[in-house]
Amino acid sequence: RINVFPEQKRQRETFVKTNVASRKISQRSVSKERWVETLVVADTKMIEYHGSENVEAYIFTILNMVTGIFHDPTIGNAIHIMLVRLILLEEEEQGLKIIHNADHTLASFCKWQKSVNPKSDAHPTHHDVAVLLTRKDICAGMNQPCETLGLSHLAGMCQPSRSCNINEDSGLPLAFTIAHELGHSFGILHDGQANDCEVNGRHPYIMSRQLHYDTSPLTWSHCSKEYITRFLDRGLGFCLNDAPAKTEMKPPIIAPGVLYDVHHQCQLQYGPNATFCEEVD
């Protein structure tokens, strides 16, 4: 295992590929900054696929995208995703089982990440949420191939045993999967699930049930904004009030399209033999 860091009520939500009452938004949550100290773990399949020399830059690119998604003004709150620890698993880790069954993998990862999290919130590598990245095909609810991309605990943020999620690498769209699962951790339901934000021919949102590959940027629906504001107003994000130590990992800010051209983006998503088709009717 490579630990990349500078010296010094069980309910789950799945994300697949394919009426909130109106109220005044509390100024407490929309004006107060929150810092989500994040542990990212990449499994052996991620390293094998991207290569040990390239995987770190790829993960930094993804995390930059996730940070940008949470900085989108449609979320209505000041939330910063801060990478405090990156673990690259070059071999199987004892106590962590990453298998096709997404439910079992989530349970295993949540237990494992709690065991490696320093208990003191003041520790520079203490995390508020843990994110697993895998190239393994995961599936929730069945032991056969399906379109599941991620799995997390609903409203699990700041609960040490439930503030964790698993995400299947799908190329640069992985950033939207991570943001989606983190949204569930903040208590956000799918758009159209017991709310009036179902997408009917309109542009999909971050919390849509399915990931739509589109060139337009995804945003947060007004339902998502209200869910997360309510979560924070109730004090459920209490662990996010402290800014991280200065040892926070700061990847270089490089636009994904600069680091990965369209051909490389196709390969990240569809495999090494894929290429961008420039002439499509």
Comma- or semicolon-separated keywords:
281 residues, single chain, Collagenase (Catalytic Domain), 16% strand, alpha/beta, 8 helices, 7-stranded mixed beta sheet
Question: Can I get a quick summary?
Answer:
With 281 residues, the protein is α/β, with parallel strands linked by helices.
Provide structural commentary:
It holds the Pfam family Reprolysin. InterPro entries: ADAMTS_ADAMTS-like, MetalloPept_cat_dom_sf, Peptidase_M12B. One of its GO terms (biological process) is extracellular matrix organization. The chain has 281 residues and is of the alpha/beta class. The protein has a single domain (2-244), classed as Collagenase (Catalytic Domain) (3-Layer(aba) Sandwich), CATH 3.40.390.10. Helices cover 28% and strands 16% of the residues. The chain has eight helices and seven strands; from the N terminus they run ββαβααβαβββαααα. The protein has helices at residues 27-31, 44-50, 55-70, 102-115, 174-185, 222-233, 256-259, 262-270, and strands at residues 2-4, 12-16, 34-42, 79-88, 129-134, 148-153, 164-168. Strands 1-4-3-5-7-6-2 form a seven-stranded mixed sheet, sandwiched between helices. Helix 3 (55-70) crosses helix 5. The protein is globular. The termini are far apart.
